[in-house]
Amino acid sequence: MTHTWKFSRAGGFDQVQLDSGADLLALEELDQKLWAALSCPTRGIEFDARTLDLIDADADGHVRAAEIIAAAAWSGGLLKTPDLLLSGADHLALADIDDSSEEGKQVLASARHILRSLCKPDATEVSLADMDDIGKFVASLEFNGDGVICAGQIGDAALRATIEDIIKCAGSVVDMSGEAGINSDIAGSFFTEAAAYSAWYAKTDSDPAILLLGGKTQAAADAFHAVKDKVSDYFTRCQLAAYDMRAAVPLSRSVEDYQQLAAHSLSEQNAELANFPLATIGADKPLPLCSGINPAWQGKLEALREQVIVPLLGQKESLNATEWLALCARFAAFEAWQAGKPATRIEQLGIARIREILGASHSVAIDGLIAQDKTVEPEVKAIRSVEKLLRYNRDLYSLLNNFVSFRDFYTGKSKAIFQVGTLYLDGRSCELCVRVDDVAKHAAFAGMSGICLVYCDCVRNGGAEKMSIAAAFTAGDSDYLMVGRNGIFYDRKGRDWDASIVRIIDHPISIRQAFWSPYKKFAKMISEQLQKLAASKDSSVDDKLLKAALESSKPATPAATPAPTPAKPPFDVGKFAGIFAAIGLAIGAIGGVLASIVSGILGLKFWQIPLALAGLMLAISGPSMMMAWFKLKRRNLGPVLDASGWAINARVRINIPFGTSLTGLASLPEGAHRSLVDPFAEKKLLWPYYLMVAAGICALIGLWYAGFFQHK
Q1: Phi, psi at residue 645, to the nearest 5°?
Q2: Do the beta carbons of residue 288 and residue 317 sit within 8 Å?
Q3: Phi, psi of 70 (to 5 degrees)
Q4: Which of 68, 217, 534, 621 measures 20 to 30 Å from 292, CA to CA?
Q5: SS3 133
Q6: CA distance 63 to 403
Q7: Distances in Å between the alpha carbon of 195 and those of 158, 359, 363?
Q8: Cα–Cα dist 156/409, whole Å
Q9: Mean pLDDT value across residues 333-350
């Protein structure tokens, strides 16, 4: 039979009610089209990150619907009464763990083992507080089930030295204890390379020609290869000189080459000098080994003589072409052997140490230790499962009420997990604040929400801690919200942050703001025009004063002939008459409109006049209020959360009453005493009121004479 669900209407959409453990176990049956969200990030929200990491099975940084279903099914299946998940308790009685399954038996046994290790063998319940040091407890075990062996846990000195050598050559992994160790992959790679290197080196035992100088062969080979190409070049040049005597001089380099070289500061490291032959070229001339050598190659030839020529050919002052070819042949076997050398990281240990490790059968010992460590893996996993069950018991129901439904957000009993704190700014407190990683990226999508969002950069501890938030202003107005204003943000832990506005997404906040908006815009326009007029007049006066000051400071020049003053143009009566006529028409039109309005109002009965004034105000403010009403009805939290990494599955509406509850306006406390006496209040002038009264009386008299009050 399918599960019977209960739904309630909140935020403009149907939300499932999770009221029992059976509801949680049946989540797989609930159509995911009815879920409020399908994914949420594991960071940036007010929820235990460790619990989210345990739910996030694929460790991709997001918790998804399938993982939520799996977490509810797993935890509910290990409890005798799944309703316990609704309690949110951080402790669990041992009697409540269902041991009817194999996994349940292991979890219960592990819980008792933990309590015994904490010297509480008679305890009847286990809590998250008991798990605080469980990580250290597991890590301190000789075998902790992670398949990693550390050198420090090995008593045998020889085996411990081998593990240290493996770490040095093949790398390491971190054990649960935090120490560097090796696993089966690292150990297998090391011993494979060691066997290959040992087999390669064993060829020297069957062929003495390979190590022709014993342990000194490698150094001798290095000295030989350092000059091999240069010596071959020398003998080739000498053979060419034997072929044609004319080639000897140019092959030794010309005088001009030496002249160019003489212009530079010379040393043995000079690159141009190193390009010269080892010695002067002659027909079939031997290579001198002691004198007459190119200074740039003197040291390398000396190394060749001491490490190769003397051990193989004896003391010699020179070397001929035949002897050189014989030396090359002597190193052929060594070079062929080197060409077959396997790629390895263990050569640094030396063949003696490698053979010692292979001969001691340490590979078998290490494999045995790793296997022994792996045997306790189920037990350690069961210990981890105790922590997992306790965390799910405490946190899972809260997560479901912020994922499957948004019960916490709409009931107001507790804050939703995406509400990171409260912003106090402009005489208001904003409860709907979400964390933002990238303001520009977030604002690009969150603007579709229809919510007035204020982005703030928050810092504390002198700038050591920083974060950005987006705060929703859902009550009041936006008249004094501007970039650069400062406020205080309190996070969910009660810590205060300095907040500064960096960006605003302006949307209607309230109907009241929309009502006064036309009048404020008109007043702002008049104010700006008056300010421009005053500024232009002030600038004109300043220019005239500056011009007069400059002219008065100029010295008199009697020799200069004053320029003739141009004659003033005659007064154009027609032009000024047209201007005055236009002004008169404008004033007349305005006066006619005002007279029509006033006459229309005064023509009404007294009880009709307030209705007419209300209708006039409604005609002015009505369109703005209507547009604001439609926009406020469409406010949707979804884009704000989607921009923060959520996958919102419903239209999470914020209507006018609910939005008003999310932003608190400043108000005096109930029962507070208020004094209206302001010692710094501006003194009110009475003559403007007298003038208005007199103007009103004159207007009424004029209208009376005009016959507006006569009964027809």
Answers
A1: 105, 0
A2: yes
A3: -65, -40
A4: 217
A5: coil
A6: 10
A7: 19, 11, 11
A8: 61
A9: 88
Tell me how far apart the alpha carbons of residues 624 and 340 are, in angstroms, rounded to a whole number.
Answer: 87
- CA-based nearest residue to 599, from 691, 712, 699: 699
Query: Distances from the Cα of 607 to the Cαs of 601, 602, 613, 664, in angstroms?
Result: 11, 11, 11, 38
> Which residues of 463-595 form beta strands (DSSP E)?
465-473, 486-491, 496-505
Please name every residue paired with 500 in a beta bridge, in sequence order, or none if there are none: 457, 486
Residues 6+ apart with CB under 8 A from 222: none
Q: Is the pLDDT of residue 451 over 60?
A: yes
Q: What is the pLDDT of residues 80-131, one digit of tens each?
A: 999 999 999 999 999 999 999 999 998 998 898 888 878 888 999 999 988 8
Q: What per-residue confidence (pLDDT) applies to 423?
A: 97
> What's the confidence (pLDDT) of residue 668?
86
Matching residue, tokens 């509801």: 23
Single out the residue of 210, 470, 173 nearest to residue 338, CA to CA.
210
Q: For 305-342, give one letter per residue: b (16+ CB within 10 A) or e.
A: bebbbeeeeeeeeebebebbeebeebbebbeebeeeee
Tell me what pLDDT residue 638 has.
94
Q: CA–CA separation, 331 vs 160, rounded Å?
A: 40
Please state the rounded mean pLDDT for residues 701-709. Answer: 64
> How far is C-alpha 623 from the chain's CA centre?
43
Comparing C-alpha atoms, which of 145, 137, 71, 78 is closest to residue 107? Answer: 78
Average pLDDT over residues 56-80: 96
Three-class SS state of 440: helix
pLDDT, residue 400, reads: 97
Three-class HEC string of 325-375: HHHHHHCHHHHHHHHCCCCCCCHHHCHHHHHHHHHCCHHHHHHHHHHHHHH
| CA gap 121, 441 in Å, rounded | 55
From edge to edge, which strands make up the β-sheet containing 173-174? 149-150, 180-182, 173-174
Using alpha carbons, select from 109, 84, 104 the residue that is nearest to residue 20.
84
CA distance 85 to 662: 29
CA angle 154-156-158, nearest 5°?
A: 110
Which pLDDT tens digit goes with each residue over 478-500? Answer: 888 999 999 999 999 999 999 99
User: What value does the mean pLDDT take over residues 13-34?
Assistant: 94
From residue 163, alpha-carbon distances to 7, 146, 355, 359, 467 in Å are 62, 17, 15, 15, 45
Q: Read off the pLDDT of residues 390-444 as tens digits, 9 standing for 90 and up.
A: 999 999 999 999 999 999 999 988 899 999 999 999 999 999 999 999 999 999 9
Residue with tokens 């240990």: 349
Instruction: List CB contacts of 371: < 8 A, sequence separation 6 or more.
Output: none
What span, in angstroms and rounded, lies between the C-alpha atoms of 470 and 374?
49
Q: In a 10 Å sphere around its CB, with 0-12 CB exposed, 13-18 middle and 19+ buried, how is residue 448 labelled?
A: middle
Q: Would you say 220 and 213 are in contact if contact means Cβ atoms under 8 Å apart?
A: yes
List the structure tokens of 172. Answer: 């390491």
Distance CA 26, CA 20 (A): 10
pLDDT at position 553:
63
Coil, helix or strand at residue 476: coil
Torsion of CA 44, 48, 51, 55, to 10 degrees: -30
Query: What residue spans define the domains of the chain?
Result: 6-140+376-410, 213-330, 418-507+635-664, 512-541+604-630
Alpha carbons 402 and 367: distance in angstroms, whole number: 48
- What global pTM score does this model have? 0.65
Torsional sign, CA 645, 648, 651, 657: negative
**How far apart (Å, rounded) are the C-alpha atoms in residues 130 and 119?**
11
3-state SS, residue 43:
coil
Residue 675: the pLDDT is 83
What six digits make up the tokens of 213? 């100088």
Residue 571, pLDDT > 50, answer: no
Question: Do 135 and 364 form a contact (C-beta atoms < 8 A)?
Answer: no
Residues in the chain: 712
